Model the fold of this input.
Amino acid sequence: MTDAKLAIARPAGLRHWLALLRELVVCHPAIFMAIWAAGLLVLAPLSLLPGTAPPVGVWDVDLSFDKVLHVIAYGGLTGIPMLALTRRDWLSAAVAVVLIAAFGYEIGQSFVPGRSFGYDDLIANLGGVALGVVLGVWIRRLPAAR
Done:
């Protein structure tokens, strides 16, 4: 087979799909930043209302699944501006907003009946922010999808 036929026959890998995602976000930054803002607003009641904590196990087995949800939520909220924003000052401000939310929502839980501040949750939040920054930088550096 020729190289052209091999390229067509080869399935697209993860890097290809991430590069396509990046291009989609870059082409429509306003839409994705609106999704980012909505995500921050949705996270507030999920974090601060009594009785909205995610399940921590399945069939009486403690899985600490809520920490995974913290990482996903804050990683996603950090990843969106990492791909959508090109100006460093705006990008820094957006990541700072996510960091403030990570701390603020967790501290706010200490004032909500039935909820409490947890260092483990805060570490999961900050881990999500760090993961979002690292993945965002990596995805920004990927070559263009073909």
User: Anything to note?
Assistant: Residues 34 and 40 are 10 Å apart (CA to CA). The mean pLDDT is 85. The chain has one domain: 29-48+64-146.
